[in-house]
Structure formats: structure tokens, C-alpha cells
Amino acid sequence: MWLKDNGYTVSHAKYGEKYVVEGLASNGTSIILNLDVNRTWVDIKGPCLRGDWKKISDDDAAAKLNDIVRTPTPAPTATH
Predict the structure, then answer these.
(1) What confidence score (pLDDT) does residue 9 get?
(2) Which tens digit of pLDDT belongs to each residue from 45-54?
(3) How far apart are CA 15 and CA 64, in angstroms?
(4) Residue 80 lies in a domain
(5) Is residue 22 a part of any domain in this protein?
(6) What's the confidence (pLDDT) of residue 56?
(7) What is the distance between the alpha carbons of residues 15 and 72, in angstroms, rounded to a whole number?
(8) 38: in domain
(9) Which of 24, 30, 57, 69 has the most neighbouring CB atoms within 10 Å?
(10) Could you give the CA distance from residue 65 to residue 26 in angstroms, rounded to a whole number?
(11) How are strands ordered across the β-sheet holding 40-45?
């Protein structure tokens, strides 16, 4: 499993119909995967060095990583 291979302590639990898998790294980073009946989501938290966000933003802009072409999904056509 990627989390264990990268040094995370992994735990899991079930709450009713919901499953939760959590990976916790020694630096305080947590990755939590929530699997519910009607939705799934990921929550990631961790330490950030001052100024990291600015460098990452500048690097993304320089590489045009945020220039994503988005094509609208066609609306479904009614059938009779």
C-alpha cells in the first residue's frame, strides 16, 4: 500500500455504512479517505513551510499547469 510504503501509519474504521482510511506521517501530514454510501471524499492536511504556496503557484503558472481546456459536457437528449 502506498501509504505504508511511504512511512505513514495507517488505520481504518467503519461507522455505519461509512468506511474511513487514514494515513498519518511523522511530520503531521494526514490523508483521510472517506467512503460513504452516496459520496466519497479525501481530506489532506499537513505542515506547510512559509512561502511554499507562492513558489508552487509560480511554478504552476510558469509551466501553465492551470491552463486546462474545459469542454462542457453535452446535456442529455430526451428520448421518447
Answers:
(1) 96
(2) 888 766 677 7
(3) 42
(4) no
(5) yes
(6) 79
(7) 37
(8) yes
(9) 24
(10) 30
(11) 9-15, 18-24, 30-35, 40-45
